[in-house]
Task: inverse folding
């Protein structure tokens, strides 16, 4: 027994190390993907959607608080890939880790469920996980860069705003997508045709809507509503993420609905579009899922009640005599 316990104790640090390395790799890869498309506001370069925050929060929700060293390690590798780190790297690592950790703690305190099957869960993710918790990461990171002299203090608020919104969009778009992906099931054969139609429709409609000079971004919403009504989060969140990625590409290229706009106008228009996408997909799907679960619960309760009544009815009749099955049998029983 002592030998078994010793082996388990030896494996535990190794398991933590592998888990931290896996989380760091996912965080770093997501950050590099986000940095492929950048915008500049007041001389500061930022990503409109910072997917690393969404990856970090998803890892915390699935793996628990013990994975936070992997988040800090991934943030360090990401900073290292951008240049030689200075003393300010400590503040960056603290901000990058503190935001997702605060989001995790607040969501856990609020009774958040990762299946996002309730409207309450969607609202908690929006207001606690994204809007509130990302205030911490944005504030710590921007203050650190200002104190290090890498950002102008006169532009603190515009830079802080775009930093906060980018982190929040990462949570709103990436975290639900990853949570849905982990719990996804294969669609039934009867729904393959509709699934294929949704994929083809998204592949055709979203690029047209985001790159059209007619400013046709609104065309994405009927597709998003269809996905939410028929597939709930499993359909709406991939559509929202795909639309956000295509809109970000169009914004950074300055084409479509973003033609001729200043950097600030591009940022504002893009983030309003991303935010409305995320809220529509997340909250509408949560409402539909909650109503469906309520209906199933009512149907199950009715079935149990019917079985209980049938069981009681069977006990009300004497042994050897079957209960009447129809109106004629009941009338005959009454006449007798």
Result:
């Amino acid at each position: 027994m002592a030998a078994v316990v010793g082996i388990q104790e030896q494996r535990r640090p190794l398991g933590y190390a592998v888990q931290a390395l896996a989380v760091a790799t996912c965080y770093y890869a997501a950050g590099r993907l986000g940095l492929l498309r950048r915008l500049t506001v007041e001389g500061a370069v930022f990503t409109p959607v910072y997917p690393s925050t969404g990856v970090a929060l998803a890892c915390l929700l699935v793996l628990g608080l013990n994975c936070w060293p992997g988040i800090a390690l991934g943030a360090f590798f990401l900073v290292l890939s951008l240049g030689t780190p200075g003393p300010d790297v400590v503040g960056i690592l603290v901000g990058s880790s503190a935001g997702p950790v605060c989001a995790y703690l607040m969501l856990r305190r609020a009774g958040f469920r990762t299946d996002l099957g309730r409207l309450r869960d969607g609202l908690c993710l929006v207001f606690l996980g994204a809007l509130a918790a990302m205030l911490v990461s944005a504030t710590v990171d921007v203050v650190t860069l200002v104190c290090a002299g890498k950002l102008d203090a006169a532009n603190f608020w515009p830079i802080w705003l775009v930093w906060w919104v980018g982190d929040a969009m990462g949570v709103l778009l990436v975290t639900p997508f990853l949570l849905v992906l982990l719990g996804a099931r294969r669609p039934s054969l009867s729904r393959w045709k509709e699934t294929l139609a949704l994929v083809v429709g998204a592949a055709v409609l979203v690029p047209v809507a985001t790159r059209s000079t007619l400013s046709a971004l609104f065309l994405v919403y009927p597709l998003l509503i269809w996905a939410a009504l028929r597939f709930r989060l499993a359909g709406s969140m991939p559509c929202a993420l795909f639309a956000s990625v295509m809109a970000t590409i169009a914004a950074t290229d300055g084409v479509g609905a973003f033609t001729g706009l200043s950097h600030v106008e591009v940022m504002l228009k893009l983030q309003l579009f991303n935010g409305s996408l995320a809220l529509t997909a997340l909250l509408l799907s949560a409402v539909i899922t909650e109503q469906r679960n309520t209906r199933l619960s009512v149907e199950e309760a009715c079935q149990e009640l019917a079985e209980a009544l049938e069981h009681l009815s069977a006990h009300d009749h004497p042994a050897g005599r079957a209960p009447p099955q129809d109106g004629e049998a009941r009338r005959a029983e009454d006449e007798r």
Remarks:
- Strands lie at 39-41, 44-46.
- The radius of gyration is 27 Å.
